[in-house]
Amino acid sequence: MSRWSGERGESLGRAFFARDIHQVARDLLGREIWFGNRGARLVEVEVYEGANDAASHARSGRPTGRTWPMFAEPGRVYVYRIYGMHRCLNLRAPSGVGAGAILVRAAQPLSGFEPEVHRRRRLSGPGLLCKTMGIDERLSGAWVGQGLVLREGEPVAEERVVTRPRVGLNEARCQEATHWPWRYIIEDSPWISRR
Description:
The protein is of the alpha+beta class. Helix content is 15%, strand content 26%. The chain has one domain: Methylpurine-DNA glycosylase (MPG) (3-methyladenine DNA Glycosylase, Chain A). The protein has helices spanning 14-17, 21-28, 115-119, 126-133, 171-174, and strands spanning 32-35, 38-48, 77-82, 86-92, 101-111, 148-151, 161-164, 183-186. Strands 1, 2, 3, 4, 5, 6, 7 and 8 form an 8-stranded antiparallel sheet that branches. The longest helix has 8 residues, at 21-28. The protein starts with 13 loop residues before the first helix and ends in a 9-residue tail after the last strand.
């Protein structure tokens, strides 16, 4: 089971995020994410670190007007737009090189969604998840708990958690970072974004 436990409905505070980024990523699986009246169970996340990670927005080692939440205190939210149209939700946690955030890739709908969301797997992928839940850049920089809430949910047994290489990266630009097993998934979940 997860190394972090509490009551199912309890909100995760800053202390949850103030641990090694890989521990936080693993422990996010099974937690509940709530935005407004919509709630979902996290089933897939990916780690992105700082200057050591060619796939990361923090690879320069310096914060920008957009990326500063990756360098901020643990528990901040980082939302950015990719390809000019899709939003991606990230949660700040510290890494061995300082900067870092965890991309929320997929979730299982729990409450507040239309039947089509279940039928068409509209939370399976970071862009779909943000669009379906109504998450955008206005949330970037906020603390977890200020609009976006994470709850204990149901921690996942170790035997159900696997790591895989991150997906959707440009291998020419990211090189060896393309192969790092920094994608954490609940292996038997039908809601993960890619097999």
